[in-house]
Amino acid sequence: MEALLPRLEPLLGPAVAPPVPLDGGITNRNWRARLGEGEYVVRVCAPGVETADLLDAVFKADLAAFAGQAPRLAERYRTL
Q1: What are phi and psi of 8, to 5 degrees?
Q2: Are the C-beta atoms of residues 73 and 61 closer than 8 Å to each other?
Q3: 13: region left, alpha or beta (phi > 0 left; psi from -120 to 50 alpha)
Q4: How far is residue 76's CA from residue 73's CA, in Å, rounded to a whole number?
C-alpha cells in the first residue's frame, strides 16, 4: 500500500493519515486511506487474480452505489 500512495496522491490529494488495514477480502487486501478531503477504501489485488473477477467486482460495486447501498467508486478498475 505504501508504494501506491505516491500514485494516488496526485489524483485524490495528499495523505492525511497513514493507511489502516481492513479485515476481509478474499482476493485482495483492503486499506482505509484518508487522502485530501476524502476517505477511501483502497483494494490491492492479490497476484494471479483474473481480470474477469475484477470487472465483476467493479460492476457489483457500481450497482450497489447506484442503488444507494454503497459509496461510488473514486477510480474505476484502473491499474495504478
Answers
A1: -85, -35
A2: yes
A3: left
A4: 6
pLDDT at 64 over 70: yes
**Is 57's pLDDT higher than 90?**
no
Closest to 30 (Cα-Cα) out of 15, 10, 13, 45: 45
| CA quadruple 30, 33, 39, 44: dihedral, nearest 10 | -30
Q: Which residues does 45 contact at the CB level (< 8 Å), separation at least 6?
A: 27, 28, 54
Q: Residue holding cell 501506491?
A: 4
Parse the chain into domains and list their residue ranges.
5-66
Q: Give the pTM.
A: 0.68
